[in-house]
Amino acid sequence: MTAQPILEIEDVGKTFKRRDKTEVVALRDINLDVPKGAFVSIVGASGSGKSTLLRIIDGLIESDSGRVKVNGKVVTKPGRDRAVVFQHDSLLPWKTVIQNVAYGLTLAGVKWKDAAKTAQGFIDLAGLSGFETHFPHQLSGGMRQRVNVARGLAVDPDILLLDEPFAALDAQTREIMQTELLRIWRQSGKTVILITHQIDEAVFLSDEVVVFSARPGTVRERIAIPLARPRDLDIKRSQDFVQLVDRIWKLIEEEVRASAAS
Ligand SMILES: Nc1ncnc2c1ncn2[C@@H]1O[C@H](COP(=O)(O)OP(=O)(O)OP(=O)(O)O)[C@@H](O)[C@H]1O
Ligand SMILES: [Mg+2]
Known about the structure:
The protein has 262 residues and is of the alpha/beta class. Helices cover 37% and strands 23% of the residues. Adenosine-5'-triphosphate binds at residues 16, 18, 24, 26, 44, 46-52, 215.
């Protein structure tokens, strides 16, 4: 018997109405199951509905059709079983690192002493020990993103939703963040859904890469990544890795061309 997936996306569709009353079909018939503890990435052309799907999973917006289930329960609003990290860090500038990481817990009514203790654990896990009392402006971009991820983890979600979390970082910092994220994922045992435009990032991190078609977003192909774990950056030079990146790139290239031509 296979275990119930932690995340079930069933026939999800979403159409937005523009101000001029025209409609944009952002998502159509999305079906996806994610097993507990998996690392799944979503790649696809710009405007293919990836962020929309993440917002629907989080419960920030409603789908028009279909449903999303987490642990078998239909999602209707945001909940503590899910946490999102967006592309641009959304840290509170007037709060310190530890206050930012503990923020979700204090909002949920956890006493400061307990919240701070939990936050400290995730600060350590994110490699930020010693920076607890720093303010966001005193940190590098990579450190701020790690605070962001730590803040997402601190509320102990079952599923961590990451929307291009490293897009603002330079190439070297980004590679370091990828290995950090793998380490945190391994140690925390969370289920991760990552949106990225960087195909090598998706392949490096994931158990499965979901390729979206251009708008309206549909699941074009699901590609299993059978590379052994634990992985380090050297794997990016292996032939298997390069072939997987190439295969996914070709799928997306066709979509980008098709959408540019339409
Ligand atoms: N609130 C909204 N109102 C109207 N249209 C929207 C809204 N949010 C998204 N859209 C439209 O839905 C489509 C999908 O947007 P979405 O942000 O999900 O794409 P994406 O795949 O995340 O793109 P990118 O890779 O550029 O981040 C786009 O055409 C976008 O303009
Ligand atoms: Mg997006």
